[in-house]
Write a structure and sequence with these properties.
By secondary structure, chain A is mostly helical. Helix content of chain A is about 75%, strand content about 0%. Chain A is flat and about 50 Å long. Classes of the chains: A mainly alpha (about 110), B mainly alpha (about 230).
Chain lengths: ~110, ~230
């Protein structure tokens, strides 16, 4: 690939990303009232998306091979437990991550 | 005037600390990867600045190494980044009235910036627009600096960071829980987890996001129609 072709390829990726991010704001501009149905989606989509993002993070975990997803399960339980207990975002995230690192480096 | 920016920055920074850890790790990996594939550090630097969509930047390395196919590159980007459409729909109201900053807020709306800006409890004395602006800006700063450093020092990094990338998973677990503890109706939360898991099993790791999005959208739309028929208004 020549430099020009590389630049065009990267520009296409930039364009595609911009479209996915700006499209809703172009279709439903701030000046006009947003349709009720879209407002409803704006309320119910985020919790569903957060669930989807957790699965997205875990998509390469194999239940039938390697460590069978056990370190992930333990670390998520620790993260969730810490969060229910103290409800300190940074503490829960750091605790879960450290437990995970110890598990994959020393145990599994 | 200065105080307004400083207060927003100070309120925003703690929310971005886990992202700093996660982004630096993933962005360094990305820079190292591009370095190993023979690209100068300018590539990860400029690509992380202009694309600013983590997984897509990794995919772009593959595109650059393959045959020249601009239309294919565009279509693949639209597929992989389609989830941003959901973020935009959810942020229509939140980004309203933020002035010119809105353009940057939308440009920088990655998974992490969206999640924080949607769930964060912004203190009343802090300007919402600037808070979200700094969350987005700090996140991009971490990402670009990590990718650039990875590209420069790629071959020198050798401490044991195995498992550090779990910080992103942990962050989304916490964000999911924060949302869960706040909401009255848990059906969308469970739906997101369940539908995505089923789609992952059926379609595999590389192809499950689009079917998941369609299924979530279809079920949530159907749920509203059913409830409307039952005579409930909102």
């Amino acid at each position: 690939m020549t430099l020009t072709e590389q630049i065009i390829t990267i520009a296409m990726v930039v364009l595609g990303t911009l479209i996915t991010r700006f499209l809703p704001f172009l279709v439903f501009p701030a000046g006009k009232p947003t349709p009720k149905f879209v407002q409803y989606l704006g309320k119910v989509l985020p919790p569903a998306v957060f669930g989807m993002l957790i699965i997205y993070c875990l998509k390469n975990v194999s239940v039938f091979a390697g460590s069978h997803g056990i370190p992930e399960l333990i670390a998520i339980a620790v993260t969730a437990g810490l969060h229910l207990w103290k409800r300190q975002m940074l503490l829960s995230i750091a605790g879960g991550t450290i437990v995970y690192m110890l598990l994959v480096q020393l145990v599994f | 005037m200065n105080n307004k920016y400083l207060r927003a920055l100070r309120a925003a920074f703690p929310y971005t600390v886990p992202i700093f850890a996660g982004f630096w790790f993933i962005a360094l990996t990305y820079g190292v990867y591009m370095n190993a594939e023979g690209f100068s550090f300018w590539y990860p630097c400029l690509m992380s600045l202009t694309i600013f969509a983590g997984s897509m930047e990794f995919v772009t390395v593959g595109l650059l190494l393959g045959q020249f196919d601009p239309v294919g590159a565009l279509l693949m980007t639209l597929m992989i980044n389609a989830r941003h459409l959901f973020y935009g729909i959810s942020m229509l109201d939140r980004y309203r009235g933020t002035g010119l900053k809105k353009l940057y807020l939308i440009f920088g709306m990655c998974d992490e910036s969206f999640s924080i800006n949607y769930t964060a409890d912004i203190p009343e004395d802090v300007d919402r627009g600037w808070f979200m602006f700094f969350v987005t800006l700090l996140n991009q700063l971490y990402w670009v600096s990590g990718a650039t450093l990875g590209g420069i020092f790629g071959s020198l990094i050798s401490f044991n960071t195995e498992g550090l990338d779990f910080v992103m998973t942990a962050m989304f677990v916490v964000i999911f829980m924060e949302q869960f503890l706040k909401e009255k109706n848990h059906i969308p939360s469970f739906l997101g987890l369940g539908v995505s898991l089923v789609c992952l099993i059926f379609f595999g790791a590389d192809r499950f996001i689009i079917p998941s999005m369609f299924a979530i959208l279809a079920i949530l739309s159907a749920a509203r129609l059913v409830r409307r028929k039952d005579g409930e208004t909102e």
